[in-house]
Amino acid sequence: MPTQTLDHAKQLRKGMTDAERRLWQYLRAGRLEGMKFRRQHPVPPYIVDFCCVEAGLVVELDGSQHSPAADAARTRYLQSQGWRVVRFWDNDVLREVEVVVAAIWDFTSRPALSPTPLPPEEGL
Predict the structure, then answer these.
(1) Which stretches make up the DUF559 domain (predicted)?
(2) Domain spans of the chain?
(3) Suppose 78 and one of 37, 59, 83, 88 were both cysteines; which one would form an S-S bond, judging by CB atoms 3.0 to 4.6 Å apart?
(4) Residues 6+ positions from 49 with CB-CB distance below 8 Å
């Protein structure tokens, strides 16, 4: 992985938003039923907010500056790489973090679809 990508991920970890810091307190060190989450993790060409490799789950937090079209393209790409993606608004994390954590746990406990379907342009 390019050093530039790793450096950017490291900078993002140091500059986490309030919502990211709040959620990280619940996800770090296996606190969610022993599931290991990573924060600001490179999934080239993107850096995702949080991911659990074991569950194949990406958790993205969206603030007011997010673009729905860009987020949809990012989600489609991540799904094409075998990730399940769940998104929450920053405000939801800050106001009801326990509800968000319960929803994340629900996603980690569901089996992923297997095999991962091909993106539409690669199908039959």
Answers:
(1) 6-106
(2) 3-111
(3) 83
(4) 20, 39, 40, 58, 59, 60, 61
